[in-house]
């Protein structure tokens, strides 16, 4: 019965090892791109939900960073998660929390505002930029830019046209 010799098997394993070694860095970059896209999609979904929630309830709605899912953190660091809540005073039973920490892994999510407000009656949203960075630095950073009307766009530059910077 014909078969492979030991030398042929070793050569085939060596070629496979070389191919895996060459493909690993590209695959790691691809995984980082997927993580970043997932975070941007979660942020975009939260913005669309905030706009819809404000319009249907007829009241202002805020989107902010939160680490505990109950209160806004008051800072621009949104890496742990987002809180979507009514801006009426008192308890907010209709708030929704999205944890970004589990989804993003090594990503850093920073906003230039502590709270992004969506007001339904005058169709106003706080203009804001939410930047998503990873260990590749500013060259791979992407931003979700929210206009005054609440419309979104994703860019590798800030609203003034400058390249994004990561901390």
Please give a structural write-up.
The chain is α+β, with helices and mostly antiparallel strands. The chain has one domain: minor pseudopilin epsh domain (minor pseudopilin epsh fold, 3-Layer(bab) Sandwich), CATH 3.55.40. The protein has two helices and nine strands. The strands form two sheets. Strands 3-2-1-5-6 form a five-stranded antiparallel sheet. It has a four-stranded antiparallel sheet with strand order 4-7-8-9, with helices on one face. A hairpin with an 8-residue loop joins β7 and β8. It is elongated, with a radius of gyration of 22 Å. The N and C termini lie far apart (64 Å).
Summarize the structure.
This protein is about 35% helix and about 25% strand. With about 170 residues, the protein is α+β, with helices and mostly antiparallel strands. It has one domain: 3-Layer(bab) Sandwich (minor pseudopilin epsh fold).
């Amino acid at each position: 019965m014909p078969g492979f010799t030991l030398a042929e098997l070793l050569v085939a394993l060596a070629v496979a090892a070389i191919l895996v070694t060459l493909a690993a860095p590209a695959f790691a970059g691809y995984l980082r791109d997927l993580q970043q896209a997932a975070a941007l999609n979660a942020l975009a979904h939260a913005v669309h939900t905030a706009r819809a929630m404000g319009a249907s309830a007829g009241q202002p709605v805020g989107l902010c960073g939160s680490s505990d899912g109950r209160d806004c953190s008051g800072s621009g660091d949104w890496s742990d998660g987002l809180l979507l809540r009514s801006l009426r005073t008192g308890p907010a039973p209709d708030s929704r929390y999205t944890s970004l920490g589990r989804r993003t892994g090594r990503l850093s999510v920073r906003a230039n505002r502590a709270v992004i407000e969506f007001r339904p009656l005058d169709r106003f949203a706080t203009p804001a930029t939410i930047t998503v960075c990873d260990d590749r630095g500013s060259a791979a950073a992407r931003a979700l830019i929210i206009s005054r009307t609440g419309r979104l766009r994703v860019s590798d530059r800030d609203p003034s046209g400058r390249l994004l910077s990561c901390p």
